[in-house]
Amino acid sequence: MEDADEVEKLFDFEVSHISESEKIKLRLKKFCYIIGFLLILWVISIIIIVANNKDDPIQEKTIQKDKYYIMAEKFISNLTSTEIISLLNGINNIQSIKESGQKDLCEGQIGSFGNGNASFKGMCLQEGTTGVLYSNGTGIRWQSEINTAATFNKKLMLKIGKAQGKESKEKGINTLLSPCVNIMRKPKDGVLWESFGDDPFYSGICASEIIKGIQKSGVIAAIKHFLGNDEKEYEILNSSNTDINALMDIYVEPFYRAINDSEVRAIVVGNNTMNHTFCYENEYLLNNILREILNFKGFVISDLCDIYNNHSYNYSLLDLSIRKECAQGTFDKEDKNENFERNYSCWTPSEEEYMKNQTDIKERFKESAKKIIAAMYKMKQMKDYPEVNLFNKAQINETNRRQKLQKDAARESQVLLKNDGILPLETENQRIAVIGNIPLEFHLEYDFETIKSENFISPLPDIENLTKKRNIIVTSSSNLIDDFNNKKKKKYDTSALNKIKNELLNKNLRYDIAIIFITANSIGKYSIIDKNEKKEFDLSLWNGANELIEGIKNDMKVIVVISGPSFDKISWLNEVKAVLFSGFPGEGASLVIAEVLFGKVNPSGHLPFTWAEYNNLDSTISDEKFGKTWNDKFRYDGGDINGLKDARENNGMDNFTYPDGLYIGQRWFNKYNNSNKYIFPFGYGLSYTSFDYSELNLNISEKGLTIEFNVTNVGPRKGQAVPMIFLSFPIENYPKYIFKGFEKVKLDVNETNRVSIFVDDHALSYFNNNKYTRVNNGTIEVYIAENGNITDSTLNLSIEANYKND
Predict the structure, then answer these.
(1) pTM given for the model
(2) What is the pLDDT of residues 611-629, one digit of tens each?
(3) Residue 118: exposed, middle, or buried by beta-carbon count in 10 A (0-12, 13-18, 19+)?
(4) How many CB atoms lie within 10 A of CB 393?
(5) How far is CA 408 from CA 217, 399, 586, 628, in A?
(6) Terminal CA-to-CA distance of the chain, rounded, Å?
(7) Residue 107: partners with Cβ closer than 8 Å, 6 or more residues away
(8) How far is CA 379 from CA 79, 218, 349, in A?
(9) What does the alpha-carbon distance between residue 593 and residue 288 come to, in Å, rounded to a whole number?
């Protein structure tokens, strides 16, 4: 009873028989009891919350700690159901833009709304890989992403991202639909020009730097296309199939980097089918992998207007649907177009669905809306953001700075593939013929998705300007150019070729050198060259270029400049004196190429892919299923509340099984010890100087692997070295010599720099048993090389994978 009396005293301070000091002690005890009681309640509540949320996705637990998400939550709480649904439904305006050319009409758009408690001015989504789409020539004509990748310069990529982001913001663009990180499995890939090559690690690094720059400028970057959007010619009609390890280590890897290194806030989902399920209705891809394993906190967007048979909004797989201008909820069972419009459906979230008495659907729709608004809060777009004006042009000083940056990037993207001592062209008293033209900075943005023969520029003026003081005679009559490109005839013929050959070989004209500019016969999904439109690249050379080079290669010195994202066979490689791979270098292309050829610029670009005859790597088409276990995990069964079925399931869909698995690009050739010989390895690129590497040192820790070494310029010119890190893991049946690091180092003649490259924990991991696993047993082999041909590596050292904490 003493305890009971003590408690009674705690709550009765008016008792007369205790002193004042005792009363104070009792008050302190009372306070302690209350605090203890509240602590017990707090602990119990935490236990209840954890128990109730033990099965929640990782993403749901972390996103609610994001302050921008909290701000979005407050904003959404003031919206009507109609306004919430409007945030999830965008409109594709491409056809309207082409018809009207409106400067305030975005390619993808969420409409504005307002009420007494909240207002929303809308969202503009625009393509911008090489410049703002449909901007009427008011922006910079940036080089393609394959060129940006060829620079191997992370600092430069960050600057490009910042500049593109600022340009987009000035035009009122909220979300820039860039960059693209689909993997180049073969040189015919239809979006190769807007991707970063065939290495998953490198693609992720490039994308992360670009994204950091875009988002630092206050614009949302939307990385694309999730996932496996690598078969452009048959992307909608067939299923691309691969196993889970290849899926994660190759195709997911660039997205992992973008999410964890640069916190990208938006992802565009591919319109393709992967392992028999359309990506945008693939719960395993979008929930289990993207939102849980990768912990993506942003919003997922449909590929503009490309949604086919999408019936999965109960799972909120897409956050933002950009639909064609068609009736909501319709399902077209007729084959409007055998290739691309089969069974098209523009089913989208509706207010009717929202208002149904289903709490889970309502909450899912709200979650999607919150993610969109949270991204806009993070980029400070919810207040005082520029109005949409795609034709807005930057001030002249800013334009000049961006043009300089673009040209600097183009200079660093030029890849010298062959040089038999002829370059740079510095000898005086020469007579040089310039044949052919350069595609006008490959831009679907500036010519409504076409490249016609008249959209080529002559490199002659810039070459003449660089040579006029050197007593070098450069000639190329307009007739020669016209005959070669056939602006009038639109198709080359034998007589035109013979005319060019005869003039070049005319002894009276005494040509010493011929510089021949060539391009592909078709430049992929978004281009038309002389009405030759294809979803994939036609890698044969345009207008008889092969025949011309073959006809003169034995009688004079030939230099070939290649414009294009990649090529397959070049039969004359061994006979010509030099080959420069120019790609699509954007604004100032002619000047940049001339500077490299005549020695004003030392080339420092490197191939971001393996140049090879990919006959063995082309996807195989078969009618076989890929495997029951994999299908069970990935396949959407086609059923939903409306009873709609995937009518394409047995409607002629072929399977594109990826036979290469983990062995993409250089890895394929390393696996067979180069028995299937490539033409040029990954990372290949020559310079007008040379470099030496020495004093390699390794240190491994919990955070990753630090690699240090010296680089010295031992050649006759200042230049930029690109040392590359390749690792071999002690894992059975795993690719050797995996690219895991690089740096670009500027050096004067005889200068030495100590270089440090850090390979982080994730780069030392691989996907195994449904999780990323750090290599922690055995020996890791480290190679320092100038390209993916490891037999020519300059330094090699091994280190134990199992580190000890200091």
Answers:
(1) 0.85
(2) 886 544 444 333 333 333 3
(3) middle
(4) 16
(5) 20, 14, 11, 52
(6) 58
(7) 92, 93, 94, 97, 125, 126, 127, 133, 134, 177, 304
(8) 21, 5, 26
(9) 47
